[in-house]
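Notebook entry, structure prediction.
Reason for the run: the old model in the group folder had no record of what sequence produced it. Starting over properly, with the input documented here first.
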Amino acid sequence: MSHIRIYFEGTAALRPALGSFIEKALPLVCGKLRLTAGGGRDQAIDAFVSQVRQGSANILLLIDSEEADDGKLYARLSTKQNWRIPRGRNLQKQVCWMVQCMETWFIADRAALRGVFKRNLNERALPPNPKVEEVAKDDVLRKLKNATRGGYEKGAHAQQILRLLDPGTVRNASQHCQRFFEVIAEQVGR
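New structure, fully documented this time:
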């Protein structure tokens, strides 16, 4: 297998940091990743669906779930107006989720947050639940902002934090991150 293309929700500025995070977790993918920033959620879905319709293989979609995983995330995605895939195609295996948002991965790794915010991080203000995917998106964002004394700004800090994240720590706290790495490893192993 030569390459795997991952369409993700986010800006092109996140591409190097996300690639670094994935390669730390899976050194076997070095040089085999092609990350495509979709911008907003719908745009990332559109880009992914367009490639599916063209018959592209070895592609994945990584998007925020925006909500807790009730086992029906893919079912709801497949009813969206822009989910125009060929009849009979089930892409559930190719859709990976950040539950509930990218910042969920950040609160899973407090050492990475300390690395960016240093003494401005109040860890006691972060959600105490070690099952980070159970923390509602609004709570994740609010508590992260509070824990950084108002300092966290996605555009200014997401790349830095992504680069510092320990994949083992995040995958232990996030079953969907673990699944994301498993799907990538399986795709590359083909």
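Summary: Residues 175-188 form the longest helix (14 residues).
The old model has been moved to the deprecated folder.
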